[in-house]
Amino acid sequence: MRKYGIDGIAAFAVLSGSAALGIVLWLQFDRGTAPCSLCIYQRLADLLMIAGAGGALLWHGGMRPALLWIAALAALGGAAAGAWQWHLVAMAPQVESCSAVRFLETSPAWGPWGSDFAASLSGQGSCATAGGKRWLGLPITHWSVLVFGGNALLLGIAARGARHRA
């Protein structure tokens, strides 16, 4: 695989992951959608995918295939969490709620944006309710599986190509 193809895939992963993260944060802070614990795990997978793909864009040495594999595995984990949430949405009448997750506690030392940052990584809503929210006509769970699954496939192809180039 040519270097520009690998760079293009990594750039696509960074851009699509950033767009997806921006959309879910907009849904949370502007539309009042409470994220669930699976939403938070998907956000963490998205951040890891963005970091791995972004690192692969900047690093052109022997570490590049490993960074692409990290990004691909993070995307695969995000797709799995999205697929599980899709299942929970389908089973909504039988699923009351998910367990709450809070990765960061708010602190006055973080400044005025500290509570918003901590809130973006804490989930307490219902997985079935949060996953059923729609954007452009499709439920968020469907978008999650599409974006993460597509990126996992492309990043895996790029990682294989980068391994053969290294």
TrEMBL record:
<protein>
    <recommendedName>
        <fullName>Disulfide bond formation protein B</fullName>
    </recommendedName>
</protein>
<keyword id="KW-1003">Cell membrane</keyword>
<dbReference type="InterPro" id="IPR050183">
    <property type="entry name" value="DsbB"/>
</dbReference>
<keyword id="KW-1133">Transmembrane helix</keyword>
<feature type="transmembrane region" description="Helical">
    <location>
        <begin position="140"/>
        <end position="159"/>
    </location>
</feature>
<feature type="transmembrane region" description="Helical">
    <location>
        <begin position="66"/>
        <end position="86"/>
    </location>
</feature>
<feature type="transmembrane region" description="Helical">
    <location>
        <begin position="9"/>
        <end position="28"/>
    </location>
</feature>
<dbReference type="GO" id="GO:0005886">
    <property type="term" value="C:plasma membrane"/>
</dbReference>
<feature type="transmembrane region" description="Helical">
    <location>
        <begin position="40"/>
        <end position="59"/>
    </location>
</feature>
<keyword id="KW-0812">Transmembrane</keyword>
<dbReference type="GO" id="GO:0015035">
    <property type="term" value="F:protein-disulfide reductase activity"/>
</dbReference>
<dbReference type="InterPro" id="IPR023380">
    <property type="entry name" value="DsbB-like_sf"/>
</dbReference>
<dbReference type="Pfam" id="PF02600">
    <property type="entry name" value="DsbB"/>
</dbReference>
<dbReference type="InterPro" id="IPR003752">
    <property type="entry name" value="DiS_bond_form_DsbB/BdbC"/>
</dbReference>
<keyword id="KW-0472">Membrane</keyword>
<dbReference type="GO" id="GO:0006457">
    <property type="term" value="P:protein folding"/>
</dbReference>
